[in-house]
Amino acid sequence: MSPRPGLRTTLAALALALLAAFAVGAQAQPPAPPNSLLLIAKPTLLDPNFARTVVLVTQAEDASTVGVILNRPLQEKLQAFLPQDLSGENYKDRVFQGGPVMRRVIISVFRSATTPQAPAFHVLKGIYLTTHPANIRALLADPASQYRLYAGFSGWAPNQLQSEFMRDGWYVLPADAETVFRKETEGLWEELIRRATKPKPTT
Question: I want to staple 25 with a disulfide (CB 3.0 to 4.6 A). Which of 33, 60, 122, 169 is the partner?
Answer without folding.
Answer: 60
